[in-house]
Amino acid sequence: MEEAIKQIGERLKGLRESLDISVQEMAETCGITEEKYLKMERGESDLSVSKLYKVSSRYGIALDILMFGEEPHMSAYFLTRNGKGVSVERVKAYKYQSLASGFRGRRAAPFLVTVEPKPAGEPVEMDIHPGQEFDIVWTGRMELRLGDKMFVLAPGDSIYFDASQPHCMRALDNMTLKFLAIIL
């Protein structure tokens, strides 16, 4: 897990340096302080997919390249076998598995997301990113906070929302949550 976060940080730094982007501009793109951004580059801070999505959108680089270091190659189809998608754990309790990492020119980024339960009362950071998001719960139950609203989703429940609204997800019932997230 730590190695994957360090590699993502190295790719962020490489992108910033190759495009001659200042730390200040990258931090503003991510919506965080320069200090927090530099911690991301060094692999010392939690990385959110939404922040990486903001960078990929602004600078025209595939999200997969930032997350996994791989350029998509397929243009007709891309098959992901069960449990075989490229994955990254941002923190111990949150894992993203890309379901279309090898498809070039995607219009959406589908992920199987696994969220481990956290102790009750532990804060969950709200996030925002451009575009829209569709989530459907596979296993477990999800608490979804969207702006000032809170929803509980059970297996088979889905939600489609404007991802520029602050949002976060939490596993409920002290059980692992798995859901499909499609970022458009």
Automatic annotation (TrEMBL):
CDD domains: cupin_XRE_C, HTH_XRE. One of its GO terms (molecular function) is DNA-binding transcription factor activity. Pfam families: Cupin_2, HTH_3. The keyword Glycoprotein does not apply. Keywords: DNA-binding. InterPro entries: Cro/C1-type_HTH, Cupin_2, Lambda_DNA-bd_dom_sf, RmlC-like_jellyroll, RmlC_Cupin_sf, TransReg_Diox_bact_type. Residues 12-66 form the HTH cro/C1-type domain. This is Transcriptional regulator. It comes from Prevotella fusca JCM 17724. The lineage of its organism: Bacteria, Pseudomonadati, Bacteroidota, Bacteroidia, Bacteroidales.
